[in-house]
Amino acid sequence: MRRIVIPLIFGLTGAAILISLGLWQVQRLEWKRGILAQIETRIAGAPAPLPAAPDPERDRYQPVVLTGTLQPEALYVLVSQKRVGAGYRVISPFETQAGDRILVDRGFIAVQDRDAARASGPVQITGNLHWPDDRTSSTPANDVAGNIWFARDIDAMAAALDTAPLLVITRETSPALPGVTPLPVDAAGIPDDHLQYAVTWFSLAAIWLVMTGTYIIRVPREKEG
Fold this sequence. Notes:
The chain contains three helices and six strands, in the order H-E-E-E-E-E-H-E-H. It is an alpha+beta fold.
């Protein structure tokens, strides 16, 4: 009996731990979905004037409306779009009616359109404040001299374009500016791996139980043999 009881206790304990980890990930999944819903609601909210002192925590995703002049200068951030291929995000300086200069992410252009003329001048832009975190450990250094950026490094871009370190992601412009396709901010890029983790833990628990059961069945037979 001892040959069975000890492995059984060990197997049930291990399975219980793995199942509890899976349940914890399910709880995290519900929490994360609630957070994502809040973010989506905030992104789609009514636009307001640019805050006097924007804060990365308080004002992230805040919808804003800007009236002023879009400047012709541009920085190009290398990105890729599904079913389109490689291209660039176009980052330009924008001067508000109050005289503040900020960064505006105008949207996407194809690689071959980099040297094409793009409209600038008086415009109203509706978009969202954002402090993107594009850079990872594998992201190359920006080629500032060649004007090819691999991440939207706001401080470096602000220094290059002589603006405040503040970025607005364009949702729409009035009048419409042809040649650039806006890439509005959304919650799609926020990691949400909790379901995958939950499935992994539950699968390990099932495997653990199967292995325990197999061992318990085989022990008496091996002893008899």
